[in-house]
Amino acid sequence: MVPEIRFNEFYDSWNNVTLGKVSKFSKGKGISKSDIDSSGNLECIRYGELYTHYGETISEIISRTNTPKKELILSEINDVIIPASGESSIDIAKASCVKKEGVALGGDLNIIKSKIDGVFLSYYLNGKRKIEIAKLAQGNSVVHLYPKQLGLLQINVPTKPEQQKIASFLSLVDEKINKLKEKKELLEQYKKGVMQQLFSQEIRFKDENGEDFPDWEELQLSEILYEHKTKNKENSITEVFSVAKHKGVINQIEHLGRSYSAKDIGHYKVILPGDVVYTKSPTSEFPFGIIKQNQTDRSGVVSPLYGVFTPDTEALGYILHEYFLSPINTYNYLNPLVQKGAKNTMNINNDTFLNGAQIPLPVVEAEQRKIAEFISKLSSKIELLVSQIEQLETWKKGLLQQMFV
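== Restriction endonuclease subunit S ==
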């Protein structure tokens, strides 16, 4: 029994055992949310953090507590922890190896102390055995994973040197992913700071002669956006767009996996390249809808419920798109415009949308283009990092299946 992908120096078959034969199980203890103190004298891990913060290895701890050590369960190097309860069976199948001793392990954590390399075991459980672990979980609204069930899990284990080689290789893959994520986060923070400085006019561009552009003006959207109201009457446009909070204007099938449009899309609204669309569909971050520019090079159609507007210049539409990427900017603009309708629904009609609070904007097209080009270059760098991260994570997902049996 050998994996599909293997390092050349290893030849021996992997041994099949139950996890209970090579491991001992225990549970964490205590540590509620109120016990967390950023200046606490003891590092700690709570079970919910396995879902939100940690990967297969844990070496940097994000939480601390002042709870006395004698009231807690402390880690040993190589411990593997798995949530003991969660919202779904697939989510609960999440293993992490603690690479530090003396870390307090909170309640609702299964602790596995094993003869197997802990990093190897974490990658293995999260990859090749994730579905099997999920099947072991019990419960409906809240699912539970008990040591007795974990002990029955069938696993295949190579020699210790091969375990360590696999663990080291996959750790390097994760290190590369994390470095790209850190780079992306720093670039996003830089872009956010630049946007704030642009709109406060702390940063200004010069014209081709090195002279200042005219001062920005406080403008209503009605002064720079035109609602063209074009319908797809002849069904001449067949591409249906969705409008997503992260991906913006995107082909609906590409975004959602299939079309959700009506059979006859003659009443759908046409959206041209560069147009700005207001969706009115609430999300958790954008409770009154999202505002995006069509940055594809194609015309398409969108729901007739949306507002579609042509900006004075494409660059100005891009600046508005970037301005409304901020949930705070979007909320502050839309919240005063909300009209409460029947059954407590929230409505903002298109005319109201255009006549909200004034926004400071550049009025000269040359400056608009310079700003749009500058921000676009930053956005492209971020998008490239996102693509690289996604490719590496997809590759890692394949490795977790092919390097184990």
